[in-house]
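User: What would this chain look like folded?
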Amino acid sequence: MPQHFHILILGGGASGRWLGESIVKTAPKWMGSVACIERDDRKGNDRTWCFWGHEDDVLNALTQRQWTANNHNGKTYTLAPYTYRIIRSSYFYKHTLSNIPIFYEEVEECTQIGSVVHVKTKTATYTADYVMTSIPEKSKTPSPTFCQSFFGWYLEFDSPYFNDEEIRMMDFSIPQQSYTQFVYVLPLSKTKALVEVTRFARKPITEQQACSLRDEYLKGAHFKIIDVESGAIPMTAELDAKKKHHPKHQRIVPIGTVAGATKPSTGYTFIRAKEHAEKIVQALVNNSPIPTTYRKWRFRFYDRLLLDVLKRFPGRGKDIFSRLFERVPHALVLKFLDEQTNFIEEWRIFKVLPKGLFLKAAIRDLL
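Assistant: Here's the prediction, encoded as structure tokens.
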């Protein structure tokens, strides 16, 4: 007979691990009946998660470095009351899912039959009352025409190069080349930094293009490369949840990016996945409908407008983001990206943006 679990987590990335951590914290009675199936034995630094937030015990314990200021065009702006934080994946993997067994197998099929979910791997079959999955279904995976692609390097410099007390969230001093592209810098010490070249475009940036822009940006600096990472994050509103809850009978529940946890206009996922995981577990404990990653209509609308503008006029991204960082308090920008602002605060942001571009985008969206 297949081994049965109350909850099976498919995928051991950030969303799966946040779900596991939430179960350990909120529903310890389920321990022993929860497991994770993950394709890879994750041990290395395969990615870096960055986010901002207020005080949070769990995140403070996991945070490896944090900053309170952003440098934009040579000027320093405070992020208070927020701090910008970094967690490398190897550290996060080491300190999560320690109380939940992980089966390193590849999932071949996941099917709900009645109220039971059957999960088939290459070597075994499992059943579960609920399956929480971050694995995309091929038939439901959108083919985004726009993405945020990047190459990042952990660099060690011969001498101090960046001010290690401030980040550079979006440095547009590199050539735009008819795209929206920028350098992202997280100084980890006086001589070490994560330097990323990021492009918003229909096609991902190539390694050769990214290296060329990096070298131009760091012109004259002497450094060695410690580690490299790269990726392409879909910038699409297709995965936005349109309803607040899943149907009561649904036992296969998407989490992470496939659930719409990635904010379309920024690519940030880490905290949204954490919050969604906590809501899912709380709903299961209370025997209430399982929530989606539903967002308020107006924030979904704002994201669609920005994506429309960036797709149609990729060379205008520098102007749009520079206006925000130069004319709006950075804490308000972060609050807006967290979707915690009110209409008055949102108007403070909208009035600095090129109105004609966004008005036309709004008309296209509404029609």
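The chain is about 30% helix and 30% strand. If you want, I can go into more detail on any region.
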